[in-house]
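Re: the 248-residue chain
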Amino acid sequence: MTGPLLAFLLASSASAGQLGGFEKALVQPAQAAPAKSSSKGKTVSFGSGELAGSDCEPFLLCALLQIAAATYEPTAAYAAARPLHMPILPLLRLDGVYQLIPKDIDALSGRVELGRGSFGAAYERILFREKEPRDRMWGWRGEALWRMAVGEGARLDAAIGYMGFQREGSHNGASTGLSFGWYPSRAVGYEVDARWGSIGDGTATDLRGRLYLGPRSWGGLALRPGYRGIRTGDATLHGPELTVSYSW
């Protein structure tokens, strides 16, 4: 009797516990990375002036500042004449998401975004549910957005905020990221979101790609089928998802 019971317990322990493994990866210290060489001496043009490389690290920040400056007036013009319910520069956006994560996990999440013109703020809450063993983990992220209209049918959002996960413990840290959307027509578009969070001594990476389907006849409703993966250390929660959205 004890032999089969022990084998069952060992098998259950070995084949389950993805959420527990994810939390464990969150708290494991990251291996030290080699020091990066400084880029002092580089200068980047910004409007009528220049920013020294030592004053603008990393270089990506300089590039974003340049893009923000170049798109500020076009963004303001787009916001003033923005068609109702367009996914670019929404006044209000609500997302409800269902995701399937192999092998025994699904996730429910909701996100709200409020904004006006270039300025926006968003909050997301996600619940991961594991069937065997029965387990739960919450995730969340709040962020400020600098939203840019790039051309007639594209958007680029820069985000900075705070994110976290909670299971047996609470693990939080600062986050940053980018979102890009390209909409060749009113009804169809393609979207990519990337977020990076510094949690403890490690990094959590959240990547997502989606198709946007929002015909004019649907009003502000849209479907966003896609794929999302969240990785920290050697643990990843990833799988297909479907988002139902409303934009005003």
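DSSP finds three helices and twelve strands in the chain.
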